[in-house]
Amino acid sequence: MEAFGLLLHGFAVLLTWKTLVLMMVGLVLGIFVGVLPGLGGPNGVAILLPLTFTMDPTSAIVMLSCIYWGALFGGAITSILFNIPGEAWSVATTFDGYPMAQQGRAAEALTAAFTSSFIGSLVAVLLITFLAPMISSFALKFGPPEFFAVYLLTFCSFVGLGREARHKTVISMSLGLLLAGVGMDTVSGQLRMTFGSAELLRGINFLVAVIGLFGISEILLTMEERLALRGHAASISLRVVLGVWKDLPKYWMTLLRSSFIGCWLGITPGGAIAASFMGYNLAKRFAKDPESFGKGRIEGVFAPETAAHASGTSALLPMLALGIPGSGTAAILLGGLMVWGLNPGPLLFVEHKDFVWGLIASMYLGNVVGLVLVLTTVPIFASILRVPFAAVAPMIVVSCAIGAYAIQNAMFDIWLMLGFGLVGYVFKKIGIPLAPFTLALVLGNRAEDAFRLSMIGSGGDLKVFWSNGLVGSITTLAIVLLFWPVIDGLLARVGRTRRTRTADAPTPPSRP
Amino acid sequence: MTLAAALWVAPAVAGWEPTKPVEIVVAAGAGGASDQMARMMQAAIQKNNLMKQPVVVSLKGGASGAEALMYMKSSEGDPNKVLIAYSLIYMLPLSAKIPFNWRELTPVSVIALDQFVLWDNSAGPKTVKEFVEAAKAASSPFKMGGTGSKREDHVLTVFLEQKTGVKFSYLPYKSGGEAATQLVGNHTESNVNNPSENLEVWRAGQVRPLCVFDKERISYTAKVTDTQSWADIPTCKEEGVDVQYLMLRAMFLPGKVTPEQQAFYVELFHKVTQTAEYKDYMEKQALKPIFLTGKDMVQFLEEDDAQNKSLMMEAGFVAK
């Protein structure tokens, strides 16, 4: 109950006209940067950081974190309307969100995305409020073997639970892992696969690849098929919103599962990106008709968005408690904290109560206000679909190029983005899934580092991945998921034999 | 008084001034020591109106900072970019064969020296002597966490091995912050972080400073934890392990800028070192104050370069 008192104190800090105005300004700016593909949360926060130098720390962080929430909400808009994920965790939202928009259900998909973002964040904030001290000690349990086990779990769940042909998932993932190796290798301190080029030193930025793979390739495909955005004019009304909300209870299990996965992976340092993918895959796994996923199913929007926002929000906790940023935006916020003389660490919660609880209270208020704001502005965004393709396409390409350039201020990245556009186009044509590729590109490096650090620490002994309960159970779960199709098949067959035995009618073993 | 102020402003009006926003280039990731220093300067310049143009911080930490070096190298003649450099300018070209030489850039000033401290978990041995004995007696080698491979932390670890006869398993992490939390979580036995990187976990009583790698103690005597100040940490030499290492923090412009442009920045960063923000930051992060420019700076860099090179050679980190 101490937490409750502190939270009320936080609200008291927050409820001044000045802070509320800053909050609204932050949210609007955030939605705006979220909508522009590639600009996204981290860049938005970085650009606006100097504006806040003259403010007191609490007002400044409230405004910056509202930009963050705004960007999280806004990121879903481009994923659904244009198949261009703005952030790593929006990738899974495109799987069903974009097909929904194509079927003329854009407004429904957007409402679903915003609502589930809100639910995910809310669950995570509740968790932060009441479990803060415990969670920071949990995160400390993560050494290299634990990190590797989590990454392994993500990769394995993709292969085992993915909807595409397994060999294609593996091909796509392997290519991603290969490209993730370009650049400086932290463990040996040597350059790899740069072929003497100064441009390749930086490695291949994940967002550049994503903008090309999803955005540019989509434009190419659309041009080839017909010169129109395959979405119908979306009209949003209170009726659509209420309709989606009325159906919410039906999906309580999906929402709960995704919130849980999101929170768990969010407080696991570095796990936030994996959450949306895992939320999506599990929702599909437990659905009665997994085939309908990827064809515009509303659960396919609920699952990843809830998980992404639960993790995006709970990722702030390791940042505050340990100084480990869970996402790019969290890293910029971390830089901001230090300017104001607030050093993230275990003592932040003790020495700067006003600040910490003001921030937590702003998570509650920011999310409520943000939800209202995005829902009321949906018609504006949905109306983009009514603009002729010939007018929208060049704008998308330009905004993709700006986004790719802005990440590292490098012209080379624009060429790289266009290259990835072609790769994405070919992949879509021959049916190789893009998601495993992008996942491997984000996590490949970290997984490799974690594996090699574990090996240095254990002297090359693989038993380190079963050396304690935590790492052992994650590794085992990963292996179970990897072979899930086989296990599932065996279980089904055992079940069948038992049934046939009770029926006492022997049948010859059949193989599909 | 007014006259003095007018005289102070006069040279700046006469000389060159930036006409575009000035970029402080950081050769490290977000939240690291260089980033924090850049943000401090950004705030100091902005709050004290030291320059008309705004300052932006640009993070170029790709390839362990090599990205920033190549970026500066390719920006020849551009007076709107300043690099916050540290010993990577000597080490990276040696270990990873990056085609870069700091002599191609224009030196502005050395603004601080950073210390290194040997830390262990607060549940671990209490003195250097006990630490060395425990490390020798351990069945598997003690794990030493650090930032990057074949860099300052790694070199220091090799030296520590040479001086004590202990063998460590060196674990290269991506940042000092990561090395700090890994030590708190008991995933490593020790690290050689800069004071700023371990400050918060020290204040929380989770790690213990064993000794500082300098010939004299850190000068700041204000209490940092309940019982200790930076000045209370013994030097490693006092503790019988004679290993010394300091890391420079210096500002550079790209090559081929005019002397007027160089002079403007010398003046600017001199003013920065006079601000309350800078002084406060130096004490908080336990940095050693220093201000070198012109010939003194070049001489310092040459000596520092030679020392780093010989350390790297001895440790066997120079790529062939």
Automatic annotation (TrEMBL), chain A:
Transmembrane segments: 20-40, 60-82, 109-135, 147-163, 200-220, 251-278, 319-343, 355-375, 387-408, 414-443, 464-487
Residues annotated as signal peptide: none
Keyword Membrane attached: yes
One Pfam family in the UniProt entry: TctA
InterPro entries assigned: DUF112_TM
Keyword set, alphabetical order: Membrane, Transmembrane, Transmembrane helix
Entry keyword annotation includes Membrane: yes
Domain DUF112: 20-438
Protein's name according to its UniProt entry: Tripartite tricarboxylate transporter permease
Organism encoding this protein: Bradyrhizobium campsiandrae
